[in-house]
Amino acid sequence: MERAEKPAVLITRAEPFASETAQRVKALGYTPVVMPLTAIVPLEEGVRGLRNTLANSQPVRAVIVTSAAVPHVLLAGTIYSDAYLNGLRTSRFFVVGNRSADLLREAGLTVEEPPAGDVAELIDMLRHSGSFARSPQPPLYLCGRDRRPVLEDAFAQIVPIEVYEARALAPSADKQDLMPVGSADLAVLAYSARSANLIASALKSAFKDNHLPNLVWVCLSAQVADAVRTSWSEDASVHVSEKPNEIALLATLQAATEAANP
User: Fold this and answer.
1) What is the maximum alpha-carbon separation in the chain?
2) End-to-end alpha-carbon separation of the chain, Å?
3) If DSSP codes are grouped into helix, strand and coil, which group holds residue 9?
4) Which residues make Cβ contacts (< 8 Å) with residue 98, sequence separation at least 6?
5) DSSP 8-state symbol, 96
6) From the candidate CATH numbers 2.40.50.90, 3.30.565.10, 3.40.50.10090, 3.40.50.720, the one assigned to the domain spanning 8-37+169-260
7) pTM, whole model, 2 decimals?
């Protein structure tokens, strides 16, 4: 069999984000392989805490969102209500990513423009924002359970409220599913250290003694790359995105696979 010009690309994000990424990967000429290893699950305690905060305090002027999973959870049919959202109508949302911004705008909420490209940009935005600094109530940080405390370390006054978790799923694909017909090689998109560990475990289970010598790991950050080397191999072919966002990640995918298949 001739070697494919481009590898298949394994996407393990939770839905609906995995399918969205798959469309972008396919548009670049790759064959996406979607195998979610986590599912976004609302945390009732956190959502209830947010409702109580909105009901029992003065209007919250600043709300921080760094993941599109947050609006996905908060605007879901089982949680959504106009009365609940009304408590956020006067808030200004400081967000990372266009996807988060779009979902919040569609719900009629106010987003500080432009949205930040990554957390480092968001921190800089917050430090230079008068509305964030002057917020009479502590700014709320709506977040997931599995996260690095970068924002909490940067701003002691923010109040984190965990509204979702990325719950691990059992791998649902075998070797044939992961390596489509005509694809000789496989590339993996790794968004977090935890996801790198889950992916490594799933691949070892599916491929057994085949160590995938041409496997390419495309990682969102150096921390994720370190997790790959620990959970997969010290000699793994690891490529780190220049910036921690999906646009840069997919550009890294292209550069890495084009170099491997000149």
Assistant:
1) 66
2) 18
3) strand
4) 115
5) B
6) 3.40.50.10090
7) 0.86
Q: What is the pLDDT of residue 84?
A: 65
Per-residue pLDDT of the chain (262 residues; tens, 9 = 90+): 344 578 899 999 999 999 999 999 999 999 999 999 999 999 989 888 888 888 776 778 899 999 999 998 888 755 555 666 777 888 999 999 999 999 999 988 999 999 999 999 999 999 998 878 777 788 999 999 999 999 999 999 999 999 999 999 988 666 666 766 555 689 999 999 999 999 999 998 888 766 688 899 999 999 999 999 999 999 999 999 999 999 999 999 999 998 666 5
Those residues whose C-beta lies under 8 Å from the C-beta of residue 109, and which sit 6 or more positions away, are: 85, 88, 89, 91, 93
d(CA 174, CA 130): 52
Distance of CA 46 to the CA centre of its chain: 19
Cα separation, 190 vs 205, in Å, equals 18
Closest CA to 145 of 124, 175, 129, 167: 167
* CATH class (in words) of the domain with range 41-167: alpha beta
Residue 112 structure tokens: 């500080």
Q: How far is CA 64 from CA 71, 114, 116, 215, in A?
A: 11, 14, 11, 36
Are 8-37+169-260 and 41-167 in the same CATH fold?
A: yes
- Domain ranges within the chain, ordered by starting residue: 8-37+169-260, 41-167
User: Contact 189/221 with Cβ under 8 angstroms?
Assistant: no
User: 3-state DSSP helix/strand/coil percent for the chain, to nearest 5?
Assistant: 40, 20, 40
CB atoms within 10 A of CB 154: 15
Is-contact 129 112, C-beta < 8 A? Answer: yes
